[in-house]
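The pair is quoted verbatim underneath.

:::
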Amino acid sequence: MTNWGKGFIAMYESNFREHLIKELNNIVEQNVYKKEVVLTKPQGVVTDVVLDGNVYTEALNFCANNYLGLANDPELIEAANSGLRHFGYGMASVRFICGTSQLHKNLEKKIAEFLGTEDAITYTSCFDANGGLFENLFTEQDAIISDQLNHASIIDGVRLCKAQRFRYNHSDMKDLEVRLNECANCRFKIVATDGVFSMDGDMANLKGICDLSDKYGALVMVDDSHGTGVIGKNGRGSAEYCGVTGRVDIITSTFGKALGGGVGGFTTGHKEIIEFLRQRSRPYLFSNALPPPNASAAIEALKILERQSPLSPFNKGGVGGLRERLEENTAYFRKRIKETGFKIKEGFHPIIPIMLYDPAVTQKMARRLLEERVFVVAFSFPVVPKGEDRIRIQISAAHTKEHLDFAIEKFEKVGKELRVI
């Protein structure tokens, strides 16, 4: 036993450790090393952060998925506490053994009601929802046609599946039709896409995708993590915004963004699909159930959305309450940041990529902005393609006009300092 232990350590020290050190040094040299910034206060639009031992107090947070400002909302905190009091800290089991509480059933019913679908199944993340989707429903007789810029969770979910794989150019309906023709002889076909693409903030052409899928007999799957609660007349996401509610067969999404920012994800759609996932989906069958506090808070987040008065569709005249403020904040920031001379990806979503195209400059700008109390993150390869380096701004309904003006002022100051504008 002792000899085995020594040999194992020697192997690591002489080979694998040196390999990892070399690879890590390469990441640093390429200016794409990702450091964790530690928050010492609750998630919000103003927080205290620590980076490399330096403390930055009262920093304005422009890099969270906290679109509606609900991550530290008192109603959600009370709902989480209620779940904790009545159902405990954790389920200590997977769903089909003894991990299903009434909260889980209530949450799944609420999801389906909110999105206008037949049934829903919850996971501990949307990554798990996507990872547990394709391999259960499709075989080598089938085909998955995926957008070029789909989220990593869709890509990994597809990799686990034995179906034939096709990829179409980003949001290119002509290329999608070519791929659908190529797999015409497959038993089943499904087109998989993000609803809102996380790095660019642009939307899938769901109307075009649904039309082509109807024409070629394909199913449609949408990961709407950045759409749920954010867009559509009632905050019901990309399908509602694009006018294709009821035409999307499978929707996956998360509670980790607009719906409170906690853990958890879900798949919703036709009841037979959901029931089959309950029988076969590995992340569902072999992972602990969503903790009761998270399930309870997610129900409350959906109730908050329902209570918002839908005066008119998002980006088509404005909506009431939180989403109206989010829309107004987004439009204001997009207009003002362009006036300073920065190049951004056009659109209307609160994801606003500020394009810098150089990893070293992007890293330096993010650090300088933090020193100016604007908390943003640099995005470089492999998160985005090489040469597409950017700072991704994310607007929240909780940002005030003063917050936005302060950030724009600091962007202009640092941009001129680094000669990017």
Remarks:
- The CA atoms of residues 142 and 186 lie 5 Å apart.
- The longest helix spans residues 2-29.
- The mean pLDDT is 93.
